[in-house]
Amino acid sequence: MSYNVILEVLGEQLRICNRLLDISRREQEFLLKGDIEGLEHVVSEFNSLMPEIQRLVAGEALQDGIQQEGAAFQAEVGEAGIEEAGADAVLEEVSTREIESQKIADALADLRQIIDEIARINRANSFLIKDSNDFLIFLHNLMSQGEPGGIYRNPGHI
Questions:
Q1: Is the pTM of this model over 0.90?
Q2: Three-class secondary structure assignment of the chain
Q3: 19, 49 contact by CB (below 8 A)
Q4: CB-hemisphere CA count at 13 Å for 84?
Q5: Is 24 exposed, middle or buried (0-12, 13-18, 19+ CB in 10 A)?
Q6: How far apart are CA 9 and CA 58, in angstroms?
Q7: How far apart are CA 46 and CA 23, in angstroms?
Q8: Which of 115, 138, 132 is nearest to 57 (CA)?
Q9: CA nearest to 29, candidates 12, 20, 42, 19
Q10: I want to staple 38 with a disulfide (CB 3.0 to 4.6 A). Which of 5, 30, 134, 156 is the partner?
């Protein structure tokens, strides 16, 4: 796996995480508004994204790609030796790999930032849902206390 493949995988993960972030933000907006139809649409959109998410849960593939790149570089230099490979060629290769490594590090930092934001929004959304549920339970209990109990409605009649 080359650096370009790793960058492509990271780019795809960034694209999907940005979609998840957008979904989470809209979910929060619909929760605050109490828009059930909007929530249903967002949940449907999230469910349609799940196959892509499952396909890209490839953290191991990224690690394998990085390890393979390092091993391939060591093999190139190790077989020919630095003198035979040419010091300039080796320095150019190292410089190229450093640039590509920095691109990967930047993409990973962006990915971490997006994932952290998704987690923050999802925690807030879970609190909104829990609070709404608690409020509905409270209202139900409050309203059911005022209703007459049992099957007798009028005193003295069965």
A1: no
A2: CCHHHHHHHHHHHHHHHHHHHHHHHHHHHHHHHCCHHHHHHHHHHHHHHHHHHHHCCCHHHHHHHHHHHHHHHHHHHHHHHHHHHCHHHHHHHHHHHHHHHHHHHHHHHHHHHHHHHHHHHHHHHHHHHHHHHHHHHHHHHHHHHCCCCCCCCCCCCC
A3: yes
A4: 6
A5: buried
A6: 8
A7: 7
A8: 115
A9: 42
A10: 30
Residue 53 burial (CB < 10 Å; 0-12/13-18/19+)? middle
Token code pair at residue 14: 């960034």
pLDDT tens, N- to C-terminus, the chain (158 residues): 466 777 888 888 899 999 999 999 999 999 999 898 999 999 999 999 888 887 777 555 556 656 666 666 666 655 555 455 555 555 566 666 777 788 888 888 998 999 999 999 999 999 988 988 898 898 888 888 765 555 555 666 55
CA-wise closest residue to 117 among 43, 32, 14: 14
Instruction: Kindly state the tokens that stand for 20.
Output: 């998840």
